[in-house]
Amino acid sequence: MTCPPGASERLFAAMRHAVLAPAKRLRPILAITAYRSLGGSERRIYPVAAAIEMLHTYSLIHDDLPCMDNDDFRRGQPSAHRKYGEATAVLTGDALLTLGFQVIGTIPERRKGADAATILEAVRILAAAAGTGGLITGQSLDLSGSARTGNLDDVGRIHRNKTARLIAAAMDTGALVGGAGMETRRRIRDAGTLAGEAFQIIDDVLDRETGRETLGKTPGKDALNDKLTFPALAGTEKARETAAKMVTEAKSMLPEGATTGLLRAMFDFLITRAS
Amino acid sequence: MTCPPGASERLFAAMRHAVLAPAKRLRPILAITAYRSLGGSERRIYPVAAAIEMLHTYSLIHDDLPCMDNDDFRRGQPSAHRKYGEATAVLTGDALLTLGFQVIGTIPERRKGADAATILEAVRILAAAAGTGGLITGQSLDLSGSARTGNLDDVGRIHRNKTARLIAAAMDTGALVGGAGMETRRRIRDAGTLAGEAFQIIDDVLDRETGRETLGKTPGKDALNDKLTFPALAGTEKARETAAKMVTEAKSMLPEGATTGLLRAMFDFLITRAS
Q1: Is the dihedral of CA B6, B12, B14, B15 positive or negative?
Q2: SS3 for B76?
Q3: What are the structural domain ranges in chain B?
Q4: What is the mean pLDDT of chain B?
Q5: DSSP state of B160
């Protein structure tokens, strides 16, 4: 991500700051793992995986903005707007979102005939999951009253949009590029949705239980903002129990066979992680 | 753009407010005109044209934000953040940018084989022009000191990024989907770049000379923000003269033949318009 001549050094520094910060890289790894589980063995999933991490990072930058969740720390460092100012943070998010699609759109000439329809489908899936079919609707509902006055159903709906859709889309595009058929992809997607919901429940548990140094972002924000979360409504013990059940069910949805062993292990990690 | 069940009504209202407001639709019309000029006669350019208008509208919403140009009026009505608040305005821009790529990515099944590589190339071109290869770099440079301390070269560089690249990309994708070859596309793109620069010069002239009612946005903002523009540096007469010369040159770059008559007429409109 080198700044081309004539472009803004500051913008590229902020893009690198955000996207190259230490992070779990969960979504791209799930995409690559799903791809390999379905028999893919080439590097053609990498641009898609890179794009997914850019899309995810853009959403973190914009969610952290003062007019949104107003969070000063992310990935163990000052959030983009804290370090580079609000205007550059907005543009940095915009730039990473856009670059994601540019990276997916840039496939080598020799592959065009065979892969273009598949990659274009990946564009559609990821745009839907990042946009009003997922992330943006989730954040919009989260900002609205329903995150404060709702019940567990409302919380579930917000989390499916905010978190689970992109995780499911990452696994779906991995399976798609790996050559999986519609039925296999449906199973992968459903498993990803459930695992994504479990991931979010544990995220909210960690928000209550973990210090900033381990978490890499400001803990206790949900309680501070009076936001409903699963552990807030049902307690952390019940939350961990529910997440574990979800992951067990998600694992049972995956296609049979040893090739999904790594996906299963990753699902377990989603709920056993410490940050 | 109907709000699906479970999504945020407020977000969709804001998206409609911004993208369906009365506007010239210059960029999509240029895409469609370039497509038709090159022999295209079907409706397959329409999703690309719609996406281009969404990308353009997103950039207006984010540019108008308080942390950016802080503009209260756009397209003859309150800007998105004035009407829906800052958080929703950020999300509305994000949503339109993302929806643009989703719309391009959604091509009918029966066309997939033939068109996917072409449409994927359009994704790449538009992402580059909307992103760090254009709009975002332009806005970033515009916000930085170079828009205040620079000379005509700096102004030209900002305007090429901020305005001309997306106009050129609109024409380029029109030509691409219309089946044009590389050399024809290069001419169309170069002509579009020059016409786009002329468009921006006239925009800056109108900003100094026209009232808000005609303009549909707050006039005099550039002078207020102490921003360098072509007319500020060289005077409005010289600016109009330069824009006219650029359009004459742009027209001469277009491929020969009567089929580009409408494109030529549109280039003339770019510099004779009153708003």
Answers
A1: positive
A2: coil
A3: 24-272
A4: 90
A5: I
pTM above 0.90, yes or no: yes
pLDDT of residue A176: 94
Architecture category of domain B24-272 in CATH: Orthogonal Bundle (1.10)
DSSP notation for B106-144: ---GGGHHHHHHHHHHHHHHHHHHHTTTTHHHHHHHHHS
Contacts of A113 in chain B (CB under 8 A): 117
Taking the C-alpha atoms of residue B104 and residue A101, their distance in angstroms, rounded to an integer, is 11
**Chain B residues near residue A105 by CB distance under 8 angstroms:** 120-121, 123-125, 127
Q: What is the C-alpha separation between B113 and A218, in angstroms, rounded?
A: 48
For residue A60, the cross-strand partners are none
Residues of chain A with confidence (pLDDT) below 50: none
B123 and A117 within 8 Å at the Cβ level: the answer is: no
Q: Could you report the per-residue pLDDT of B117-142, keeping only the tens digit for each?
A: 899 999 999 999 999 999 999 999 88
Of B17, B8, B37, B34, the residue nearest B192 (C-alpha): B34
- pLDDT, residue B27, reads 97
Picking from A172, A179, A182, the residue whose alpha carbon sits closest to that of residue A263 is A172
3-class SS of residue B198: helix
Q: What is the pLDDT of residue A227?
A: 77
Which member of A99, A132, A143 has the closest CB to residue B131? A99
Contact A98, A56 (CB under 8 A): no
Q: How high is the pLDDT of residue B110? A: 57
Domain A25-272 falls under CATH 1.10.287.180: no
Q: Record the tokens describing residue A8, joined without a space.
A: 């803004």
Taking only Cα atoms into account, the Rg of chain B, rounded to an integer number of angstroms, comes to 18
Phi-psi region of A113 (alpha: psi -120 to 50; beta: other; left: phi over 0): alpha
Question: Which residues partner with A77 through β-bridges?
Answer: A74
The 10s digit of each residue's pLDDT in A128-152 is 999 999 999 999 988 886 556 668 8
